[in-house]
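S.,

Sequence below, as promised.
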Amino acid sequence: MKNKFLKIILIFFISLIILIGCLYAIREVKVYNLSNYYKSLARECGLINSLVIGNCCISSIKDMAEHNFKAEPSSGCPQGFKAMAESCRGSISFCAPGNSINDLFNPVIKKSDDFQDNEWMK
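The prediction came back faster than expected:
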């Protein structure tokens, strides 16, 4: 009886490890072709966050990379840019030029701050 219980526990943990490994590999494939800037943002999503929230975090990073947008700095977006985020839980906020994003997908406008230095976009 004790051996059977131990085998079940062992099979459960091995299955869990395999599942986590597969999910990690899938996430890595999704960010493989991104530049280092976007890969570092993807690391912030975290594996557990990706499992619990889904792929919204990675999806928002892929959209940012596709349009060369940068993550919203803690000081807010520069003048002429709007802070945007996809409308799903776990999305990363990014700064987009005022009118360029509306035709690309349906983001949620978060806020707009006046910030004079546009150097952060470079």
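The first helix runs from residue 2 to 31.

Coffee later?
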